[in-house]
Design a protein that fits this description.
Number of domains: 2
Radius of gyration: 29 Å
CATH topology of the largest domain: D-Maltodextrin-Binding Protein, domain 2
Strand content: 15-25%
CATH class of the largest domain: Alpha Beta
Largest sheet: 9 strands, mixed
Structural class: alpha/beta
Shape: elongated
Number of strands: 11
Distance between the termini: 66 Å
């Protein structure tokens, strides 16, 4: 069982004395007498059973024990101060509302988001998943009332990259690729070439977007004919198609980038080399007038670094998608 912590007053007296290397200066800061600080430090030393200061003729010097504990105590007192300030309402965390396609939010963004919150602890992120962030027939939806009103600060959009009135930063291009459980690479009917798909269930990602990958186009690119391309379950979200694939229910054709974590963890594999580049890509979109707001700029800097790292691990396919970094699409 851990021992009881020393009193907060004793710890505060030690921290102040250690910072000033003087009981007198610590006493002035804490509005007590030097004798009171000295007594609190002595009480702390007795509680811990160690000497924290060498008492010198002209001041104090920290012992090894004092030096060892000081940094963490200072962090703790800083955190306490910040907590009290927030309770008083003198420091309120900034809010950043990020809207993204459900598939991107669930399969790419969420696993990386803790990195941003560690870097920017004073920014509270609000994630909203919306199919509005997938181009259909109305790319201008990105500049809708919620964006203009500030309900959404940043959008991560899958589409053409042409969004009037906005700053547009490319994240990465994508390709459609068959994905399956490693279990399908062995057994009675192992997946070795695309022609082996005739022995397996085709899983379809029917996410509503222009240029959605489909089995007929991919099989044609792979030089395979004669398969019933519409057979097998259809799903209206990438997450469902990938979940079915990880469970060994069949082979899913969907955006490879969204399965990156599943591939890295060994839950899914890419059985064939043929990748079908899509014209659409992922973009970070903000209103021009809000692009340099500090919390928006901080998120943009972070996610662009994450995207560069991702592209180094999953090289982009060639594509005709418009990727004009930092452009204002008119």
């Amino acid at each position: 069982m851990s021992q009881a912590l020393p009193s907060l007053n004793a710890l505060r007296a030690f921290e102040a004395a250690a910072r000033h290397l003087s009981f007198s200066k610590a006493a002035a800061e804490l509005h007590v007498t030097p004798a009171a600080v000295s007594l609190q430090v002595k009480t702390l030393e007795d509680h811990l059973g160690v000497l924290l200061f060498h008492r010198l003729n002209r001041g104090l010097a920290l012992t090894d024990a004092g030096l060892a504990g000081l940094p963490e105590l200072q962090k703790a007192f800083c955190a306490l101060t910040k907590g009290v300030e927030r309770m008083r309402g003198s420091e309120i965390a900034e809010l950043l509302a990020v809207e993204a396609a459900p598939s991107f939010a669930a399969k790419w963004l969420l696993s990386r988001l803790p990195g941003f919150t560690r870097q920017q602890p004073d920014i509270d992120v609000r994630i909203a998943a919306s199919l509005d962030q997938i181009d259909a027939n109305s790319p201008e939806l990105v500049v809708r009332d919620s964006f203009r009103s500030g309900e959404v600060n940043v959008a991560i959009r899958f589409g053409s990259g042409v969004y009037p009135g906005c700053r547009v930063d490319p994240l990465f291009r994508v390709a459609a690729t068959p994905l399956c459980s490693p279990a399908l690479l062995s057994g009675d009917r192992p997946l070795r070439t695309p022609r082996d798909l005739k022995f397996h269930t085709l899983l379809h990602d029917d996410t509503p977007t222009e240029g959605r990958p489909d089995w007929e186009t991919w099989l044609s690119a792979a030089g395979v004919t004669g398969l019933a391309v519409n057979r097998g379950p259809h799903f209206n979200s990438v997450q469902l198609a990938l979940q079915a694939a990880t469970e060994g229910q069949g082979v899913a054709l969907t955006i490879e980038a969204l399965a990156a974590d599943d591939i890295a963890a060994g839950r899914l594999v890419v059985p064939f080399k043929t990748r079908l580049p899509l014209d659409e890509a992922y973009f970070l979109v903000t209103l021009e007038e809000a692009a340099e707001v500090p919390r928006v700029a901080a998120f943009r800097d972070w996610i662009l670094r994450e995207a560069r790292q991702f592209r180094s691990e999953f090289p982009e396919p060639s594509s005709t998608a418009k990727l004009h970094s930092g452009s204002s699409a008119a």
